[in-house]
Amino acid sequence: MNAKLRKSFSNLTTDTPFLKIYNGGTMSSVTDRIPHQAPLLGQVLQEEQANYSIPAAISAIIQALATSPNFMQHAVIQTMLEKEGKPVDSFNATGDRQQKLDLLAHDFFVKALDNTQEVCAIISEEADSLVPLTHSQAPYIVAMDPLDGSANVPINGPIGTLFSIYPRRTAPDTPLQEADVLVPGHQQVAAGYILYSTAIVLVYATPHRVHGFTYDPDINDFVLTHPSIYMPESGLTYALNHSYLNNFPHYIQNYIAYCRRQELSCRYTGALVADFHRHLLEGGIYLYPPTLKRPNGKLRLMFECNVLAFIAEQAGGMASDGKQPILQIMPRSLHQCVPFYIGSKGMIQPLLALANK
Ligand code: FDP
Question: Which residues contact 337 (CB under 8 A, 6 or more apart)?
């Protein structure tokens, strides 16, 4: 610790408020690092329970998902060390090549969620059908993409995990079927993502607020760094894969021409979560339109689009497939893809005006 910081610490007593918040408030734990004044994930979730009647089960599920940073970091590092970042010969239900890490991440989250005893089944981008868990009578179903942006793994780019929580609609003693989880995204009770980049960030939304947290490895916990996020009305960046430009519908080509006339910057990381996170904080728009090869786009309604649409709407943004709000779409199958436009209201509205001309 530098001398200036040490001096300021010497004036502190154990009654100083932040010492009580940080790590149980012991003097020894704060003297070797800069303390946090902000609350931790568990404290914020407890407050949501008390003030907004968020069920304790939702807190338990989010906290179980939040145990992933150590696992993910080690798994990625191990993958690089063993040179296993190369794709393996296996494909998921929508035909994407699965990397070993995708499957490891899927298994990790299945176990973490099963341990909560609050989740009766999972649907995952990495599983062809519904995955029933041990506690078949539990009240919630979790939809997830355990590893978004997997093509970024070999180059150490950003990756993410997306999740949404749905209440079980059928009686606890009836066997769950795939049709039971095919519900529109507005039925989510909470949704969120974890972005693994230079720092690890967790964002979750309930019907009341959207909060962002940063992982502190020293205390192995998430600290509230972005309370009550509101997505700016507009931004200076757009994200899409330009190489498909000639295959996009005309209205998209016109919209991109409009963005370029405004000299907006194109920023595309190859990981939806990372691009969305930029726009959530700074404003902007992400587009994955239909192409000739993929007439419904590439992104999965249940595992990616609904999750981010729920967060965007709670934060004041918008998400659409060009015809209707994402959260209103009645899914036909677990792995259904839809065209996806998400971001600041002031940038989605002109796009929809062009789409519906
Ligand atoms: P990935 O397949 O690597 O998991 O989820 C799909 C996704 O990544 C998004 O994260 C990303 O924005 C998009 O695909 C990239 O697709 P293109 O290479 O077709 O642009």
Answer: 94, 294, 296, 297, 298, 299, 300, 301
